[in-house]
Amino acid sequence: MDSRKKRRSIKDKLKRDNKIKEEKEIQKKPEPVEVYAERGEIRPDLYEPELMKEAAAAYARYLKAKGIKPKEASFMNSEPINAGLKSEDEETFNEIKENEPVEVVPRKKKEKKKLTIEGILAAPIETHDRLQGKFDVLVTGLARDFVTEFHNIISIYKNSRRAIGRGIFVIGLICAIILVVFDNFTVYEYAYNGKVLGYVDDQEEVTDVLDITGDKLSELRGDDEEVKFEANENITFNLVDGKEKSTDNSDTVANKLVYMTDIETEAFGIYDGGKLVTIVKSRKSAEYLLEQAMDILSTPDKGMELVSAEFSNSIDIQPINVLLSSVQSNKKAMKQLTKGGNAEFYHIVEEGESSASLEATFGVTAAQIYDGENEEIAVDFEQGDKVCIRKEIAPVSIRMVETGKMRETIEYETIKKDSKDYYKGDTHIEQEGINGIQIFEGTVTKVNGEVVDRQTDSIEVIRKKQDKIILIGTAERPKTAPTGTFIIPTENYTISSYFGPRWGRLHTGIDFAGPVGTPLYASDGGTVTRAGYFGGYGYCIDIDHENGRLTRYGHCNEMYVNVGDKVYQGQTIGTMGNTGRSTGPHLHFEIVLNGTYTDPAPILGL
């Protein structure tokens, strides 16, 4: 009884709800689908899942009221038709399915059609029509679903255009703020071959001066090869945090690039037989310089033809790290390759390097490795220390073979002979040397310019050589200490002018006239303090006799002594001449006592 009442109340409720809905629908007619489509929308009540579920529940109740047993049904989302029912409705639904007797209305039996020829022929056509109909229904459904989804998408887009616009604006604003902050709190770090030089606000502060600084550096180095700075190659940039970093302007950048010397860079060393000869900036420069050095050192003599030329030792080009100031210009490197010399290379000690490894790299001994100031030998050093390598350089060794006919010099020899006619320490050239000349024909092999092998075909002597003969004094030299007395400094003389007033001024000595070449003697023993050209005196000799005494010999033609020589009284020190302010060959002789010119005549007994 209770169950019947419950079912009756549910039916009444459904009738009331349906009546209310129908009244609302009459009052407000829904807009056609076409109107919604024009606005890019879809009717909100079309295909709403909740409405479909309610409709399914209502249909179930309707079937129960009619006494027909419902079958399972499903919709687009494949949920059972009773999905989403309220609990009480679901119980009723299930109860109807299980307990209630259902009045079954029997179907009318179809009469079997008789087979006829017309029927058989029409069967394929009918089958095609049925399939075509089902296909049309399927296509129509798919098209309807597509239009529905399209309208939904348009509706979502139109409703959210303003939100999208706001989002784009906010994103743009955030990006702008990030860019402003990034620009004001970051700087560019610029470096040469990986070595940091400084910081700039804009890369153009560096790139705008690269060409100018390259030309200036080339000029300062005096290099034949142009120095080039190139952005993103040997000059690189890196964006870094600008906190507590001072930035450079274009002038500062230019000065750093032109005058950078304490920056270590990778250069290339040229090794001859494992020994470092020079250091240049690139492998290309090293190869070019070696070719030029070969051409210079293998030039055949005049009249000869080059048969072959090669480096005597193995030549290697190896990378080596040194300070930029130690990289040699092409001009200096060529001089070192062809003539040798001395060089100083500065290097920053790297991790794992020792005195032994530096000796091997630079081809030096420990005694040639100095501290960074190049003052003391570096005994102990560690990573990061600067050291100076002092190196004696030998030119690269080249072996060359030449053949032909050439003019040669026959060098004279120097022969020394002892002579009692001269004091010990004195020498006299008895015969000057003269080189001879000959014509050589044959083949010559040279190493570093020195002949190591000769294959002679013929020799024709044009002029014989004359050896140089030097006489070496063996006689004991008298004492050179001053005696305190003075002797007349020449012989075969005529006094042409005495000490005293002459031509309106003081004549400070005595003039002994005589032929050019007349011997001059030291008036007393002492030390030579002047031996050279001295204004109006011409070639002049001064001798210090100690105790404030000095003698002077002016207008000499030859001088046989040098400054610092010890001479004895009567030693030949030169010859009479006519040099300086002179009216004829003579000796101007002076005696100076404690800085005062003194008349020599009384002292000499004249």
Structural features, described:
The longest helix is centred in the first third of the chain and has 68 residues, at 117-184. Helix 3 (49-66) packs parallel to helix 4, helix 7 runs parallel beside helix 8 and helix 9 packs across helix 10 (330-339). This protein folds into five domains: 2-99, no CATH class; 187-259, no CATH class; 266-393, no CATH class; 399-474, Single Sheet (Resuscitation-promoting factor rpfb fold), CATH 2.20.230.10; 479-604, Glucose Permease (Domain IIA) (Distorted Sandwich). It has twelve helices and 28 strands. 32% of the residues lie in helices and 32% in strands. The model is unreliable at 29-43, 72-93 and 95-110 (pLDDT under 50). It is elongated and about 180 Å long. Strands 17, 20, 21, 22, 23, 24, 25, 26, 27 and 28 form a ten-stranded antiparallel beta sheet that branches. A four-stranded antiparallel beta sheet has the order 6-11-14-15, with no helix packed on it. Strands 2-1-3 form a three-stranded antiparallel beta sheet. With 606 residues, it is of the alpha+beta class. The termini are far apart.
Helix and strand topology:
Blueprint: H1 2-27, H2 33-38, H3 49-66, H4 87-99, H5 117-184, E1 186-192, E2 195-200, H6 204-207, H7 210-221, E3 235-241, H8 250-259, E4 264-272, E5 275-280, H9 283-297, E6 304-311, E7 315-323, H10 330-339, E8 341-348, H11 355-362, E9 369-371, E10 386-393, E11 398-410, E12 414-423, E13 427-431, E14 436-447, E15 450-463, E16 468-475, E17 494-497, E18 500-502, E19 505-507, E20 510-513, E21 519-521, E22 526-533, E23 539-544, E24 549-559, E25 566-567, E26 572-576, E27 586-593, E28 596-598, H12 600-604
Parallel strand pairs: 12-16
Antiparallel strand pairs: 1-2, 1-3, 4-5, 4-7, 6-11, 8-10, 9-10, 11-14, 13-16, 14-15, 17-20, 18-19, 20-27, 21-26, 22-23, 22-25, 23-24, 24-26, 24-27, 27-28
Helix pairs in contact: 3-4, 7-8, 9-10
